[in-house]
DNA sequence: ATTATAACATACCGTTCAGTACGTTATAAT
DNA sequence: ATTATAACGTACTGAACGGTATGTTATAAT
């Protein structure tokens, strides 16, 4: 019994995610959250707990959705080289299209919270490890099909590509000339040769 | 005339730099600053301006010192491959030695402030561009000496190495297994072949 | 229809924030 | 020695912070 909830938990959590993604944890206030989520303060606390728990829920939603998105994109091409090339180009294109560069919510959190909060150290690390496994599986597919040479170290290479992706995502926050990132991608993708 | 300043501006600015580096802009309070810098609040304002101006002074101090440090390290070896190898290994070793991973103050700022403050977008971008020029000069030295092949694209390669360095610095904040970063460095340095 | 209860809106809590007013102390110029 | 002034320590400001107490409203079970 009791009154029924008037808001959609997934929708308001998504709104919180967008805001934390854009502004980070510290710079986002409860007032920012209530206005963006469209619900009152006590509703946030009853549904998600305190600010940090809400942030964690938002980040988990992000990483899950992001992982499946990455997986989908890489499976979309039969050619592995083409898959990675398109993937990296799209990441760049999306970032340069938007006015403000939010980058990656998980990477932002790695920088802001991971060094001071073990929970987020683990959460962000595991997401990156998961992405690196997706990369690795894709590379192994390329080896299997004969597109990539058999002596490629799939694991090491996938880790290097994850690191490059992180570096690209971060440096785009300073809005370098587009040629900078294009050059970088071109060089990095040579590793798939 | 008037009373003489009792604190060393460079020393207290260095203390502020350490604190901002460790905690970021938002999470560092004026009270944190006064206790770490060892001076009172009005002294900060009279010497450096408000919190953001102090932060900017601290970041400028960091980037200048960092750039000259990088330059020195890369000039320390006659072999260019060895120079980069030692450089990357040292970055990793230093990060894993310390208990907490502060990473790079400039990269932290790129993530926290650059997307919302044009001044820091420019400042952080220009630092990365400067580092990339140092990398490029080092690579060109290797080409000149015959250590690297003549058809190497020094500019593109240096940019890719900068991106990799950023990626490495960031992912170390989540404390991945050391093999992860070792693998990455090994793969990345193959680009110098 | 009554009742128990959960979600609602409002208004508030103590704390901490960045920034400053002000009275005191020390020094450089006269 | 006097004076003007700049740096000092203390204590304060209004605003914003995260979080909650409280009274009202709506709904599910009886």
From TrEMBL, chains A, B:
Name all HTH tetR-type domain ranges. 6-66
The residues that make up the annotated DNA-binding region are 29-48
Residues in coiled coil:
none
Q: Which domain of life is it from?
A: Bacteria
Instruction: Say yes or no: keyword tRNA-binding present.
Output: no
PROSITE patterns (alphabetical): HTH_TETR_1, HTH_TETR_2
Alphabetical UniProt keywords = DNA-binding, Transcription, Transcription regulation
PANTHER family reported in the protein's UniProt record: HTH-TYPE TRANSCRIPTIONAL REGULATOR YJDC, TRANSCRIPTIONAL REGULATORY PROTEIN
Record's protein name: TetR/AcrR family transcriptional regulator
